[in-house]
Design goal:
With 170 residues, this protein is an alpha+beta fold. The protein has 2 domains: 72 residues, no CATH class; 80 residues, no CATH class. The chain contains 6 helices and 4 strands. A 4-stranded mixed sheet has the order 1-4-3-2. Strand 2 and strand 3 form a beta hairpin. The chain is globular, with a radius of gyration of 17 Å. The model has no long low-confidence stretch (mean pLDDT 90). It binds zinc ion (ZN). Zinc ion binds next to loops. The site of zinc ion has 8 residues, from loops.
C-alpha cells in the first residue's frame, strides 16, 4: 500500500537528503490495526525534465499481517518514474496546444491514461469541495485546468485518498 505524503520540499532537496527526510511516523496498520514497524527503504528513480534522480522511499511493515506501507512523496505518482509536475505539463501542453514536450509515444501514453480516468476525475470534482457543476465538450482541458487551480500535487494526493488509486491509474 502506498501513502502519499507532502514533504513540502523540492525533488532535488528530497533527493539530497537521501534517507534523512522528515518521514511521517506511522504506528497503526491500516488493515488490521496492529503495530507497524520501520522496514527500511527502497530506491526509486524520478525523472525531472530529462534528469534522473535516485531517491529513497520509507517503508513500514505490519508485524501481524505483513502489509507493507510506503510513503510516496507527493511530487510522484504511484508506478510512474516521471515527476507528477512533468506528467501534468506533458498532458496539458498536448491537449491544449498540441505541443509535444517529449517523444510522441510517451505523450500519447500519458494522454491515454489521463483520458481513461476522465469519469473518475469528474466524480472527484463533484464529490469534493472543489466541485464545479458543469463541463463543456472540452472536458479534458477543463479538468486539467481545475487540477491546476487546486495545485497539482495537492490534487493528486487528495484524489488518491478519495479513490485509493492515482488519477493516472489503469
Ligand atoms: Zn496489519
Amino acid at each position: 500500500m502506498q501513502i502519499i505524503h507532502d514533504f513540502k520540499m523540492r525533488i532535488k532537496d528530497y533527493c539530497n537528503n537521501s534517507m534523512d527526510n522528515d518521514y511521517p511516523v506511522l504506528t497503526d496498520c491500516p488493515v488490521c490495526h496492529d503495530v507497524l514497524i520501520k522496514n527500511g527503504f527502497y530506491k526509486r528513480y524520478v525523472i525531472v525534465s530529462n534528469l534522473s534522480y535516485i531517491i529513497f522511499i520509507r517503508r513500514y511493515r505490519c508485524k501481524h499481517c505483513g502489509l507493507t506501507v510506503s510513503i510516496l512523496p507527493s511530487f510522484l505518482l504511484p508506478h510512474f518514474q516521471r515527476s507528477l509536475k512533468d506528467i501534468f505539463n506533458i498532458i496539458y501542453q498536448y491537449l491544449k496546444n498540441r505541443r509535444l514536450l517529449i517523444y510522441r509515444r510517451a505523450v500519447f501514453f500519458y494522454v491515454k491514461r489521463f483520458n481513461k480516468n476522465l469519469n473518475a476525475l469528474i466524480i472527484y470534482f463533484r464529490e469534493t469541495a472543489n466541485g464545479h457543476p458543469c463541463f463543456d465538450n472540452k472536458k479534458a482541458i477543463k479538468l486539467l485546468e481545475m487540477i491546476k487551480e487546486c495545485k497539482v500535487p495537492t490534487f493528486a494526493k487528495s484524489f488518491h485518498n478519495h479513490f485509493n488509486k492515482c488519477f493516472m491509474a489503469l
